[in-house]
């Protein structure tokens, strides 16, 4: 049975994301809805979890944008991954119990916290859900491999074009795009931290995309003007996002 708190929390985007690949039955949906024990709102640019902190719960992003960030010894910062509404941010902490990076908000975020003992109980009661969430941690790893390869090999123009294509697709799944446009509360410095570029280089690339009438990034919003053209420029293949239905 879903408790009072679980009944009040809107997990629609998370369930939509999971259901993109896996068909859930009513009992599985009820078990997922019963997971959170606390909901909090964090202001923009907050550190929710710090590197090395011992943790006994995982974080589910109900609304907003977050990132995994690594502070380097030379003072520079790298955003290792971006997260959107519906994502489980640190499901891997269920086994690791501490993280080797920070978890930060990019804008105002509503977060639901899931104690690890509740995850354990759900996985024991619903082994299929254990496999489904194992898939999602594997998906995070696939996404990370893609971006490591992109930063190492792809030209800067392709990197930014690919990021815009990926975010448009991920946000479309959870209903947060409109006619090719979506909120994207990053600065040009943030884009550089994501993609291994200087702010000056990012600014130059954004001007190129705008000049080619492919995409415009302005005031925390992306407008994709030519989706086919942007995908062609990025050589975008969404296979690494594993969006196809679960094999029977």
UniProtKB/TrEMBL annotation:
GO biological process, one term: regulation of DNA-templated transcription
Keywords assigned: DNA-binding, Transcription, Transcription regulation
Keyword DNA damage: no
One Pfam match: cNMP_binding
Record flagged with keyword Protease: no
InterPro entries per the UniProt record, alphabetical: cNMP-bd_dom, cNMP-bd_dom_sf, HTH_CRP, RmlC-like_jellyroll, WH-like_DNA-bd_sf, WH_DNA-bd_sf
Molecular function (Gene Ontology), one example: DNA binding
SMART domains per the UniProt record, alphabetical: HTH_CRP
SUPFAM superfamilies: cAMP-binding domain-like, Winged helix' DNA-binding domain
Domain HTH crp-type residue range list: 154-228
Name used for this protein in its record: Crp/Fnr family transcriptional regulator
Organism: Sphingomonas koreensis
